[in-house]
Amino acid sequence: MTATILDGARVAADIRRETAEAASELAARGAVPGLAVILAGDDPASQVYVRNKEKGAREAGIRAQTLRFPATVTEAMLLAEIGRLNADPEVDAILVQLPLPAGIGSSRILEAVDPAKDVDGFHPFNVGRLVQGKPAPVPCTPAGVMELLRRENVPLRGTRAVVLGRSDIVGKPMATLLTKADATVTVAHSKTRDLPALCREADLLVAAIGRPAFVTADFIREGAVVVDVGINRIDTAEEVARCFPGNEAKAAAFAAKGSLLVGDVHPVDVTERASRYTPVPGGVGPLTIARLLANTLDLCRARRRL
């Protein structure tokens, strides 16, 4: 079987275009959506993510500001800044970039964000509303996955879905959204007994476990749809050979860069077993930022009653 790619990059571009058009209409009515990002510390991946978010916001007509703090920032300083942003009428959405520096409790920081400005949907108030099926901002990655499945006409009603991973950011909200779409959902994780056999039962397998190429052929039912949420950096020749056996182009790219990106699903096995799948990079990643922009727009409309 030759699997077909679920083109997250194309769907993300469509979402960005629609968001930009809607933001332009709001601006014409005097309401420019405002996004504030808090970045604390010097985590390299976070620096890249925030730059991409800033760029995406500008292109969508969203007024974005990034508040950068050194790794020595205190919890009290961050809480004070969040309080200021909560009170700022020009800020519709607040994003706290994780991870935070050591010693700062992310739960207390995230819970300080006004739920009406919680663009990531991480506040307990919004998590509760999501579980109850009430309107609430939805975490960006699961929301992006659902948008991809909808626009690519992947059937969900009655589907047996397995979500591999139980994080608050992806796994749990992903399971909630799939359940709401009438899929029959199992949440699996590293402690699940006979994990490959359970995953093989899935018509739809969502991998979000954070381990490079962990999901191999024996996890994937023939013809299943596979969504790979993971993005991992591999930096040894042995890992490259395991993930891309006999692929001279990948070996050359690794030799030039010193590392490669791979998802949680083995990139060769998935093409041989699945019917449709998301590649890494270019699959779920672009959707996360696209949904962040759309969430900002939704919060602006709700706050300003537009």
Shape: globular
Q: What pattern of helices and strands is seen along the backbone?
A: EHEHEHEHHHEHEHEEEHHEHEH
- How many β-strand runs? 11
Rg from alpha-carbon coordinates: 20 Å
Structure description:
- The chain is an alpha/beta fold and 306 residues long.
- It folds into 2 domains: 30-114, Leucine Dehydrogenase, chain A, domain 1 (Rossmann fold), CATH 3.40.50; 140-284, NAD(P)-binding Rossmann-like Domain (Rossmann fold).
- Helices cover 44% and strands 15% of the residues.
- The strands form 3 sheets. A 6-stranded parallel β-sheet has the order 1-11-8-7-5-6.
- The longest helix has 21 residues, at 8-28.
Tags for this model:
306 residues; alpha/beta; Rossmann fold; 2 domains; six-stranded parallel β-sheet; three-stranded parallel β-sheet; 11 strands; globular
TL;DR?
The protein has 306 residues and is of the alpha/beta class.
Set out the fold topology.
Layout lengths: L3 E2 L2 H21 L5 E7 L3 H16 L3 E7 L5 H13 L5 E4 L9 H7 L11 H9 L7 H12 L8 E5 L6 H10 L3 E5 L6 H5 L4 E4 L17 E4 L3 E3 L2 H7 L4 H10 L2 E3 L6 H5 L2 E2 L7 H20 L2
Parallel strand pairs: 1-11, 2-3, 2-4, 5-6, 5-7, 7-8, 8-11
Antiparallel strand pairs: 9-10
